[in-house]
Structures are given as structure tokens and as C-alpha cells.
Amino acid sequence: MIRINNLHKSYPIGKDSLHVLKGIDLHIKEGEFVSIMGSSGSGKSTLLNIVGLLDEHDEGDYFLNGQEIKNLNEKKGAVLRNKFLGFVFQSFNLISYKTALENVSLPLYYKGVSRKERQKIALDYLDKVGLKDWASHLPNELSGGQKQRVAIARALVTQPKVVLADEPTGALDSTTTDSVMDLLKDINNEGMTVFVITHEEEVADQTKRIVRLKDGIIISDTINIQRNPVKTV
Amino acid sequence: MFDLDRWREIFQSINKNKLRSIMSGFTVAFAILLFTLLFGVVSGLKNTFEGAFVDNAVNSMFVRVWKTTKPFNGLQSGRRIQLKNPDYDYIAEKYDSKIDLMTARIFKNFSISYKNKQDNYSITAVHPDHQFLEKTIITEGRYINQLDINESSKVIVIGRLVKSDLFGQKPALGKRVNVGGISYKVIGVFSDDGGDNEERISYIPVTTAQKLYGNNDYLNQIRIGYNEDLNLDEAIAFGKLVERDMRSKLDIHPDDQSALSVRNMAEVSKGVDVFMIALFFIVIFIGSGTLIAGIIGISNIMIFVIKERTKEFGIRKALGAKPSSIVGMVVQESVLITTIAGYLGLTLGTYVLSLIGNSLEKDYFIKDPSVSQGLVVGATFVLIISGLIAALVPARKASQIKPVVALRAD
Predict the structure, then answer these.
(1) Which residues on A lie below 8 Å from B318 (Cβ)?
(2) ipTM value of the model?
């Protein structure tokens, strides 16, 4: 599903440049539940942004669903994101003046789905995350956990190939963290590829594969046996 | 353009951000309101100035004479100049091709009486063409004609107010009035847009006046209506030519303005034209300045709005919005607001102008102020285009920001 070979990324800082990713090799198959662990500055967010086509890499190859990602313009990027990717952000990134239902149906609008169909599908997904009764509420009328569940519903609504979650529990307390992680596990159990970035061991522990990143390189890539009883190493 | 979902998005965005929408709308509405009022007021001024000349034919000039103030050709200064029939005939023959209408004028003052009513009135002796040069409106009977001139008939055309003074509501036509002791037959009654004074005059044939009051061939003024094909500059040149000719014919010093002058309406209307053109440019300058201020206002607001929405655009792009859809959304919203606000400003402006109407005519010379359809459409068009550009430029820039950068914006 995701194949990355020798990926490099630098950011210019004044006249110098900061080398953030220094040759990442990563292969994620369909249906995997992967977490990227690392302290801040390790380059994990940069990796997710590149995987999510929100940013471009400098060097190396990146194949998403068998398609090479190279010299994408904004338009092609938008189409690919809409088709293959669903995002869950730490700060939720819901549009404040839209209701929960409208937020969830927005990706379908960009996909070109009719209004009636959109609302029906979006309501189904809100139901799935347990927020059907909150459909007409604005984000500021929802709790943090509820917002993140709306965001997850929004990420799933187009039935993407991969769900990318950037510190999905970073702004949540431990109880809601568990409920959000349970939701991501459920999604993965249904066959969706889930890619989580976190710096919390408890969160990473609940995923099936843990990739540790330090200073722009992968230092370990282990199968979480505890969570992956079916497959053996 | 007619994507219902797109419109829903736009109305939602306008609705949820009322203050922002009202602010940008207000800027435009106010600019257009000022623009409309400015042009309306100027058109009102123009109406007043143009109205001031309806009383006399525009393509006319007067030859008038007084006393000389400079010696010339061995003649002393202080000599009274007298126009006579040969002068009239001389101009008529020499410039036949350039002259459409021509009349002499002799001014008299007599008491006119009918039965037991009597008063003093101005009487002007004229040729038939005088009717058209003075824009006299015959309401009853007829004007003086060539036959009256040829036969020196004792006929008189009286003004509306002369008639009401002497006859009241009774018919005047065919009655005989006593003018300074001589009996005249009333052949017509007239009115004149020039005001009451012009309706207290009576007209008699030139030849009658010359024969009965002095038995000479004296004239007080010659009035010429030149060919309408002459443009302003040609008409002015013609006036100068006549002036020069008459000076040499009457032995007047070429620079002696006090002895003879030709008052040419072409020069007056040229003066008014120049004034109107100057006014027009001033208005264009201020008017476009107002519009530009409005445009800059909305551009500023759009830049701010788009900056404020950068994060939202980042979210939308992460969810699959193409740059074009973001640009389209912002531009459409801006054009919608400018169009509606511009229309409101125009409507309000036109309404205010219609309220003003003729109420400012007396004190401020503003008569029936209004704006032309073309100007209204043009200004609206300029606004729509500017609303489009004001949104397009920053929106395009914003839409090209990488989502990762846009998402970080606050």
C-alpha cells in the first residue's frame, strides 16, 4: 500500500537547511495498523505529511497504492488525497462554522457525490462513531473526544485506502484516548490500513506494528506480538 | 457557475461570517452611493446651465451699437452710431449662405389702451424671423408676416400678460388697441419661456415703426440666426467677421468695443461647454477616486478574509479540495457581495437623487439630478470586475500554499 525507499527531506532555515528525514525505508501493506513513535523533532510528523501528500519529499521514491508520487501539482494531490487518504489531526481541524454532519460530508462534496447521498452516507458514519444524535451540532458544542470522533468519521467517509492519524489522542484525556483508540482498532479490524503517529507508549502499544524514529532515521521496526496474535514473526 | 452546492457553501460562509460580509458590502455600497450622488448632482448642475439657454435660439447673435469712444478716420469720439436699413440689407446679402434667420429690432415704449384700460409697455418692432430667434410661442392668431412688413400694416402681436391686463378673459384677437395714439389691430397673442418680462412685450412690424415714429430707416439691433451647419468655432469666426465688416462700414475704430459689439451665443455656449468639460473631468477624477477607494477597501478586506481562512483552506485541501474550487468559492462569494452591495448603493443613490428632485434648483442650481443608465451599468460592471480581481489575486495565492503550511496557520 505504502512503499518508501531512501526518503529524504530538508527544510530551509535561513541560509542553512535542516535535514529532517535522512533516508527512510518503509513498507506498509494493506490492512496494517502501524504507529510511528518518536520524540518531537524526530521527523515523524514530516513523514506523515509526506505520506499524506500534504508535503513533498526531496529525494527517494514513494509509491502510494502502486502509484509513484512525484512532481504532484496541487490539483492531482487533491484528487489523490480525496480518493486514497483520510486524515485525523491532533487539533481535529473541523471547520468551525459547519455542523458535525456538514464536516463529515465535506470530503464527499469534493468527491462529487450528490447532496442527498452525501448526507445519508455522512449520517451513517456519524452513527458508526456514536454521534448520530449530535449531527446538527457545531464543533464548539462538542467535547474533545466527540470532535475527534467526528474527525474520524470524516476521515472514513470516502472509504479511503489509508487513514493517517497525527497524534490523534494528543489533545485528549486518558478515557477519551481509549475510546478513540478503540475506534481506530475497530476500523483496522474491518481491514483499513491505519497509520498513527504518536509519542505515547500506551497509544503505540495498542497498534500492531511499531516503528521508532530518531533524528530522521528508523531505529527499530517491530511487530507488536501482543496485539498481533494471528501473524507471527 | 450554477452549481447549487457551491452556492450553498457560499451562503453558509456569508451567513456564518455576517460581520465580515457586511463590512465588505458596506465599503462597496458606500463608494457607489457617493459615486451616484456625485454624478447625479453634476448632471443637475448641467441641466440648470443648459436650461438657461432655452429661451433664445443657441445659434444666434446680436449686432448692437452705442457711442464711439475712439476717434477714427477723421471722425471724433463720442459719435452716436446708428444702424440703418442699408446695414441690414448689406449683411443679409453678403452672408446670405450663412444666415438662416434674420431680424432687425427697434425698441419703443408706449402706453397701450383698450377701452378704459391702459398701461405702459415695451414694444419691439421686428421682422417675421424674430419669432423663431426669440422662440416666441404663438398661442392665438398669428405672428407678423412679410406682407405686414411690405405694407407697413398697423398690426400688433401682444404678450400673454398684456392680453390679460387689457382684455382679461375676453378675446383679444381682431380687436383694435391704441398704441401711443395710433390704432393697431391685434393679430396674435404669444407666450415665452423667458419669463414674465418677455410676456409684457408686444411686437409690431419694423416698417410700421419706422414710418409712424420718426419716418426714418433707423434700427436699434440686428439679430442673426446663422446656419446650424456651422460648428461652434465656425460660428464664432463668422461673428468676428460680421463685427469687422460692420466696423469698417460704419467707420468705427477696430478696437472700439463700446461703439459696436456682436454678442454671439456661440461664444457663450462655448464658454459653458468648456466649463462643463472641466466639471466633467473633475467629476471623473473624484468619481473614479471614490470607486478606487471602494475597490481598495474591498481588496484589503478580501486579503484579510483570505488570510483568516487559510487554515480552513488547508483543511479543505487535505479533504480533497482542488485549488480551483477554493479560488472559485472565494471569488464567487466576493462577486456576490460586491454585486448586491453595489446594487444597493446605486438604488439608494438614485432614490436620494429622486428625493432631491428640483428642490435645490433655486439655491444650488441643481435641477432634476439623475444618473444615466449607461453610467449605472458601467459602474456596476467595474465593481463586479473589481470584486472579482480583489478576490482572485489573494485567493489564488492562498490556494497554492502547501496544505501542510496552510494547516499550521492560525
Answers:
(1) 52, 54, 81, 87, 93
(2) 0.91
